Amino acid sequence: MAEDKKPRSLATQAAAKIAKFVRGNMSATLKAKEEGKKVAYAYINDGQDEIMRAMDIVPAWGESFAGVCAAKRDAEKYLQKAEADNFSRSLCTYATCTIGFDMWREELNGQTPPDAPWGGMARPDMIIGSAQQLCDPRFKWPQATQHYLQDVPVFVGNMYYPPWDPKRDHHEQEAIYVKYAKAELLELVRFCEKHTGKKMDWDRLAGLVDLTEKTWNLFIDTYELRKAIPTPMDTGDAMNTMVPITFNLATQDAYDYYKGLYDELIQKNEKKQGVIENEKYRLLWGAGLPSWFALGDFQYFNDKGAVFPAEVTYRNAEKLERLDLPATNDPLERIAWRWVRFWTHWYDKARKRPGSSPKVERIIEYIEDYKCDGVVFHSAFSCRSWHAGIIHQAEVLRKIYGDIPILIMEGDIVDISSYNEVDTHNRIDAFIETVDAYKAKRS
Amino acid sequence: MAHALGLDIGSGYSKAVICENGVLHSFAVLPSGGDYKGAARRVTDMALQGANLSFNDIVRTVATGYGSSMVDFADHFATDIACHAAGIHHLFPLVRTVIDVGAQFSKAIRVDEAGRATYFLLNEKCAGGSGKFLQIVARILHITIDDIGPLSLTATKPVEFTTACAVFAESEAVSRIAEGALPADILAGVHKAMASKIVNLVTRVGLMPDCAVTGGGAKDAGLVKAIEAELASPVTVADEPQITAALGAALIGAEQAATGKR
Fold it and tell me: For a tag site, which of A147, B77, B118, B232 has the least CB within 10 Å?
């Protein structure tokens, strides 16, 4: 039985609309099956959105489903199901939650398991994975899923970008990585054509690439409104407002959503209406996925006078002009350049500061742009590919940027057994004291 | 005379300190058990009795620790990080790094010249680097927690533990006993494993001398010695290291009473 938890109060009306958005994405997969459309299991931030949308493939996002299960505190039944088949608890709990759901549905001959949060997701017609350099489940999750959905074809592409090396100018390598990424995207197009029986409409794809880039620009323009003091929106809301750019990229709905949020934040700034009445501390969410079952902790920060005007997490977009992309009429090449340059566009800056790294440079940029007094990281034990670097990032930050207060919280994205509210709140209390001391010292 | 009461209701022990005009006047320590509320009242009574005072003489009560929310007579709640920083600064003003070995957590805290915590790290949600580890091993060796330190100092051949996990180490210790390992050598091995985890925290916050060890773990001479060896640097230990956070709480209370700050 799921344990109900009072949801966090949201600062923006736009954030409050997100539940409908997420539910709509999940029900779209079920409706697609009724209408004979193809459904694909898909994974976020992999450069494949425009291709899927151009082929009328309806994405079913495991990361979204698992996040919903976690937020409703109803993931345990799926985690246990996966664990019963020897999937370790230390594996990605997005993956194990969704695999547990898949296992259960197969046992029911394709029927959705009873009481699936928000109706669950449809059984996919294909699985479109992409191995980012940083996330090993991007390889293994699709493979493991196919173990249970044996008739479902799997594609796992490789979207690489030049690794960080302070001694090497990555610009010399970029073209090779772009060529490779473009080839992988073309393979994905062929895979989709084969399994949908349709040919790619290249003009449509180019239009969707333009729409994505318009959305990226608008998204950053919108989020930069949060530089205002007091900030009109913080990370507690951003963990909701990330949904359209993460799960609905290359759709008009996503663009329209951010237009609405942009207008709302402009209005709030005009009225100097902040997230909280007395904004005392401005914090950066430096890295890490949140505990979806404990989003109320953002409220706890707010109650202490702290707000998060910026976060690294889910800010997977940038103003296109800052990426300086070479001109091309080839939409796949455009996606590939955008992909490579997004991940590498802090490299030049990092090279100029001895001992720095691109991830730390990004954090420093946000600290300064958003006038932050401290940095919070969340280390989710099951997301080791990202979180393994958090301690290192925190140490590099302190080494090269001085004694800015840092808090490393511990938990998980889905597995509530990792969470201790009293301990978490104690750590937050102590951290706020260090931020207070830091501010007092600086003034 | 202005008396302030500091209470540190930890998961293992409850500590009460009464300060008179900013000076330690009396203290008491007792096991918390499962009833934090009752433990807070009992340890307060003990400290009051030691000072020959009644609760009406207390101008301000500040509570900290894992069970502090159960102290229904506290005027203020402070974090244990702030209390350790304030307590150690009062005792040793030159200390800039504090290692607190409590029953549930170990912490490394950086303290500034004003006695404020500037950075801290806690051990992971694991008993491996905390006092709980010592309690587990004391139980299987059939010795008291107070015997651990002196006994471990007689070790000649410390056992190398292959795990830093308290749960696995428990079974490993049982196996080593069965193999004939001496309790002293087992304890020295446990200290070494704990010190390694604790010093990892210290390295991450950045060791800045002077360094002090506080908490119940600091009463264990063997553990302190292992920490010094691992740090390759001496550490300072107060006469009563277990009451440092309660002392800090009392000092915070005294300051609040003096300044009228709430």
Answer: B232
